[in-house]
Give the backbone structure.
Amino acid sequence: MSLYQSFLKYLKLKNVLYRGALKLFLIIIIDIPYFEVTALQILNYLLHSKKALLLILILLLLTGASIWFRSTIKYVITQGTGQLKILMNRQPISEYIARETTTSEELEKLKIIEEAIDFAVNQIGLTDNGAYRTIYDQKNRPLLYLVTAAPEFSLTSYRWKFPIAGSFSYLGFFKLKNAKVEAECLQNMGYDTRIRTVSAWSTLGYFKDPVFTGMLKRSEGSLVNLIIHEMTHGTIFVKNNMQFNENIATFTGDMGTIIFYEKKYGKNSPQLKKYLQQEEDSKIFSDHILNGAEQLKKLYSSSSEATTVQKKREQKQQLIIEIMESVRDLPIHYPDKYKGYHEFRPNNAWFTGYLTYRADLTELHKQLQNEFDGDLASFITVLKERSVELKTASNH
């Protein structure tokens, strides 16, 4: 059987034009007389022809690229459709307020959001991208599921890469089943994975993000912190550096909320005192988890090649048990908030989440005090300038 006949059989070409194109391909591109080459000679030819090997390599690369782009495009379209659905079904807050079913608690929270936006823009210099002037009723359902992953014996976040947008240490899905498929795929590759819901996200100023009704169930401090956090993303964002972006947003949210409470209630107010105690609890817990993450890093780096995978898993699990059980001994003000963590058995994907959001907070506090004398607005001004410089550099 000739090479031409082999291709005909494999591709099942019946159209005369397609058969003619195949002949031209074999003669011009591969540069061999198709009628003289048998199927048994194909392998020998491919192994000794640089042109054929180059062609195969190009075809393989194109095939791989097409598969990758197809999955990427499919993801972008799916997520774009979900985002578009939200944007098309949001409504002015004034209309939501006018509804008979809107509760007094929701009205109060919407007022707090308005205060938080005004504070963020006029007091600490965040950019007003027109977000949070509309509202989307999520009808008590989760909106977005984030998938994160890390190797079984490393705290290095798995990263998803996209053209133009860059790389991200998490991937969002509007449908839980799609998130589960992604997580399962990564698990089959040997990664620890985590799926969690999020109550808000920033489109970085590309769209005017709405308030989600689930946000109105938060406490005042948590809500203000969230608004400032997300507005920070719309103000300061560095491509391919999610840990920087999330730590800056977390830091600005934490510090900004404290200043918000000071201005609204006073430095000696019971509201500020309670919030500071909650923040202290959060720091104690976070520091404990970050310390645990460092212990895990040391464990993974100290394992020798002779250590079996099963032994590594046992050591890892034992250390995680010790980290989480000791949460009960932390000196916190509101222990009920952390009730149950001593029984929780997270994996590496969970620990990398703390590194992404909180690993650099101590250094940022030092920088704020030492370089800016505690002036958060000045700190943000400089960060905005630096982020613009980094964006410009990344585009060249």
User: Anything to note?
Assistant: The first strand starts at residue 91 and ends at 92. The chain has two domains: 3-67, 92-394. The radius of gyration is 28 Å.
